[in-house]
Design a protein that fits this description.
By secondary structure, the chain is α+β, with helices and mostly antiparallel strands. 30% of the residues lie in helices and 21% in strands. The chain has a domain of 84 residues. It has a three-stranded antiparallel beta sheet.
């Protein structure tokens, strides 16, 4: 097993800012159970149906964020952490699909060159 070469606790939540975080019915069931809600209520409250550019998927809703503009509705914008970590969707569980995270590498580089361990590069 390859050891991860990134530290999510040092990231301001870049992956959570993806505009479309697609989820499955199983993910919705997990969230419904976490919040003790019926499936349909969880689906309607936490997701929306996205259809464009050949895509037809259910995605997580967002809320405003001062760093990225918008971010997953389950992301705590002050603590910069997931509020449903144990119930997070499969796509979140498997990201970044390997032992390295490109954004973390970029962030580490920028922080080193800025001389600021808290620096968050924006546009």
């Amino acid at each position: 097993m390859t050891r991860n070469q990134y530290d999510c606790s040092k990231c301001p939540g870049f992956c959570c800012s993806y505009s479309r975080i697609a989820i499955s019915d199983n993910d919705i069931k997990r969230l419904a159970k976490h919040f003790e809600l019926p499936f349909e209520e969880a689906r309607d409250k936490f997701t929306y149906h996205y259809t464009a550019d050949g895509c037809d998927e259910r995605v997580l809703r967002h809320h405003k964020d001062e760093i990225y503009g918008s971010i997953c509705r389950f992301f705590d914008r002050e603590a910069r952490r997931c509020t449903v970590y144990t119930a997070r969707p499969y796509v979140c569980r498997t990201y970044p699909y390997g032992s390295k995270c490109g954004y973390y590498e970029f962030l580490k580089f920028e922080r080193t060159h800025q001389g600021d361990d808290e620096h968050v590069p924006t546009c």
